[in-house]
């Protein structure tokens, strides 16, 4: 996309050139398959839509694995840490890549070990604890770049702008 054209689509926020901030940080913020993703990188509505659905799919798959681990150990799924599950999945990734092509008995054994490791990351019961669902953005000390970079450089050379 060139310039600051805006696209309107039903079910999708208005997007500009760079990125859109999404309200569902739990889905996008904790899955970058899965680190922190605060803005989407797609430059067309179709790519943004695909990116959102990819993050939703990853989030649901992780929650499904957590539910399977909880069910096997007679626990409630909400007692298992989402972040702990992400860290466990990342730790098992090289092992899954190495052993993934072996026979099904080996894969089942590995999956059982993965579920057992996920269950180790429990969320403690914290009665009367609640946190606001807000985050505080730090103000950036620079004016956002609203013109092409080459044009901004020319303005700086001419002395029209400082930064």
Per the principal axes of the C-alpha atoms, what is the gross shape?
elongated
The percent of residues in helical segments reads 40-55%
| Number of alpha- plus pi-helical segments | 5
Chain-averaged pLDDT:
77
The total strand number stands at 2
Please outline the major beta sheet.
2 strands, antiparallel
Low-confidence stretches: 1-9, 12-25, 30-36
Give, in spatial order, the strands making up the sheet with the most strands: 1-2
Q: Which class do the helix and strand fractions yield? A: mainly alpha
Our measurement of the CA-to-CA distance between the termini, rounded to an integer number of angstroms, reads: 25 Å
Following the backbone from N to C, one meets helices and strands in this order, namely: EEHHHHH
Question: Any idea what the radius of gyration is?
Answer: 22 Å
Strand content bin: under 5%
């Amino acid at each position: 996309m060139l310039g600051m054209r805006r696209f309107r689509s039903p079910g999708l926020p208005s997007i500009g050139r760079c990125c859109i901030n999404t309200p569902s940080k739990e889905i996008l913020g904790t899955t970058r398959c899965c680190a922190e993703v605060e803005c989407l990188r797609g430059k067309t509505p179709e790519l943004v839509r695909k990116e959102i659905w990819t993050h939703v799919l990853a989030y649901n798959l992780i929650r499904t694995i957590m539910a399977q681990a909880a069910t096997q150990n007679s626990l409630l799924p909400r007692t298992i840490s989402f972040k702990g599950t992400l860290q466990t999945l990342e730790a098992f990734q090289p092992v899954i890549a190495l052993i993934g092509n072996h026979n099904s008995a080996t894969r089942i054994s590995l999956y059982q070990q993965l579920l057992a490791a996920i269950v180790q990351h429990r969320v403690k019961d914290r009665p009367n604890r609640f946190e606001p669902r807000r985050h505080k953005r730090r103000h950036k000390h620079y004016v956002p770049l609203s013109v092409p970079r080459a044009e901004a450089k020319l303005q700086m050379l001419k002395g029209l702008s400082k930064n």
